[in-house]
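Q: My labmate handed me this sequence with no annotations at all. I'd like to see what the chain might look like in three dimensions before we decide whether it's worth expressing. Could you predict it?
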Amino acid sequence: MPQPHPSRRATRRWRLLLVLAVVVVATGLGAVSTNALGAGDRFEGLIRRIDRLITGPVPERSTLPTIAVTLPPVAVATATPAPTPRATGPRPTAPAATPTPAPTPTPLPPRVAVDFDSVPDPEAVFSHQADKDWCAVAGTQMMLAIHGQAPTHDAFQRGLATRVREWESWQDSHNGNWGPAAMALALEAYGVPGYEIRAYETRADALRDSARAIKVTGAPVILLTWRGAHTWIMSGYRADADPTLFPDATVTGAYILDPWYPWVSNIWGASDPPGAFQDAAEMDRNYLAWKRPEGDYPDRDGKFIAVVPTIPLTR
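A: Here is what I predict for the chain of 315 residues:
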């Protein structure tokens, strides 16, 4: 079935929104603007449902894959086995051989704790989400700002939010709108390529690999927190050793920019200001394995999801 031309869809959308605006004025603009008795939330939900009716179902098209990452197990030292006894007696004489000197191993630097943050001024790149459902939009905006590709004001965020139909897919988000693939595609569209979606079996693996990527590229990571419902920007970390040198390094917490700030969630509590350090307990509480109520995601369910840089940041 042929799809309406984008310009015609936009015209129809704005006509419907105009009708809605008239209805709002007639029924009480003040109730919507102040969200009295939830009127504002209901109005926003109505707009989203009408928008979906206009644009049609979520397209089943290919998008960026979710890459399963299994980090190699950390080697554990074992006791040296006892030598095997040999038979005694005279040995045949052999000509003396010139011994080959063994190569001198390169010593590792000392194992010391690491405190690293790739964003020196988090407030300068912070964007609060302008809508309660726009954490991914604001998170993408902050990523672009960190890379020097976008401003932090609301006007840009609202424009970015309208482009989601260019990148949405059923595989990425069953209910449309912003999934991790849409975020990575938006970053690429605005001049920040090289981000890929990774899925990890454990939180420790996800944080260790994210910390390694941040240290190598100097660019932040997107964490899908709250079981995949929310977006955090991980700009740095603390660890008991350098994760680029020690594969068994333990990340003890992360520096986070949370687009929800300064709002308070009735489920997750108060959010923290940009650049706040979230210790291991806070990461355990907020960074949970993916599980979405709208359906199954075989590549993500039960795993910890991150959108990770592969190209060094250049400002």
